[in-house]
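Entry 14. Ran structure prediction on the chain below.
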Amino acid sequence: MSEFPFVVDIQDTEHFKQQVMEASKHQPVLVDFWADWCQPCQTLIPLLVKLAEEYKGAFILAKVNADEQQELVAAAGVRSLPTVKLFKDGQIIDEFMGAKSESEVRQFLDAHIENESQNALADALQLSEAGQYEQALEALKQLNQEDPANTDIHLAIARVYLQSGDLDNCEAVLKALPANIQVSEAAKKLADELEFARATKDAPDVSEIVAQLEKDPDNHELRVQLANQYTVSHQYEQALEELMYILRKDINFQEGKAKEAMLKIFEILGNQDPVARKYRSKLATLLY
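Output, structure tokens:
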């Protein structure tokens, strides 16, 4: 028997019927087919156990030792290890093979399983978007007490601090993240947004900058400030257009300052964003 409340080690065919086929009629069951000699299995198992505990019963993790339960392996059509199959109502509804990253497994689970912690996190972020920062932080800190290993909650806390203008606390939370999370796409995006927020903290407002640029259109430093202001207000295309203006005039302005700002905006937007793709193409044409 497993030491974890939401994890079960399958003992035989009858046990599988009870703990997977019947149990999945009441809640999803994630079945992990593994073996001692399979190194990717040994990498995946701790991650699946961690997520089973984090999701607090939103699904049950059933582990099947493929060497000991060959009849089950054959019946499930398992051809390689690890293989993970998700059961609902006694049926396989999805599966994957091979070791996956935590973000990939979360995406797989979240497509089928309602995660109460993630729902509460989303609710807290909605409070922050509405300007209710204290309530959002209170809710997130409560979630963090219940689930301290969930780095999504830490990132959400950092975002609320950023949105509320508490830049020092935002930075402190980001720096306290585990090293592997600090280099994640979500953390790097937040760090870039924080950098733009710091750059605009004592800067003139947009109308004042625009008025000055009408008198001095080639004041590139001022135009960078305008791009920064557009970025923090999520007017990314306007920001990128201002930076392109600078690059067309001076490709090496301040040792690539404008180009660096564009790359950070691309990182904030993500690779698939249409605005990012449009301006990546423009930048590439200009550079090459």
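The chain has a mean pLDDT of 94. Will compare against last week's run tomorrow.
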